[in-house]
Amino acid sequence: MSTKKEFNLLNNRFRNFYPVVIDIETAGFNPKTDAILEIALITLKMDKLGWLHKANTLHFHIKPFKGSIINPNAIAFNKIDPFNPLRGAISEKLAIESILETVRNGIKQECCSKGIVVAHNANFDHNFLMSAIKRVQIKKNPFHEFVTFDTASLSALVVGETVLSKACKAIGLTFDNNQAHSALYDTLQTANLFCELVNRWKYLGGWPVNIKNKSILIQ
Hints:
Blueprint: H1 4-7, H2 10-13, E1 17-26, E2 36-46, E3 52-61, H3 72-78, H4 92-109, E4 114-119, H5 122-135, E5 143-150, H6 151-159, H7 164-171, H8 183-203
Parallel strand pairs: 1-4, 4-5
Antiparallel strand pairs: 1-2, 2-3
Helix pairs in contact: 6-7, 6-8, 7-8
């Protein structure tokens, strides 16, 4: 039987998964053909009392991969100039390798089995990440290949909002729309939102699960 102390370990909270908050800014919607322009991630940790917090942050500006498509509408939306030399952009391969090394180290340190993407509308970011990992020919992918934690869905359940800015404000977090659509800022806000959602569930008594609780069926 798990003790209360064991419930306060990260590897017992999410079915042995290691949650990694990610946001990716792109030059379009097709993960196989459109360039990744910016990517940020934040790892998470639990304190001794079982409260979830942000841990480490990585942020990269990415050079479009050879042959990738740059959609003008996407550039107009996120206001990223892919060819601005002041971006300090690095290759997609170098960025992905650095990210996966960080995730592997976190998995090992927290005694987890796999990383899992946490993102707002997570399917989008997950698809781009998986395509990039295949493109740079990484053989051992530490992330789960199809399971994600979507803060848009979780926010709809908890506060009735699906837009990141509205969900943050509804749960009591600040959100600066002028900084939105920056991978670093959106990752920070998504991490804050996810931690708040998880910690609020714990505060309300939803974790650890009380197996004596009975389901409530609305007739």
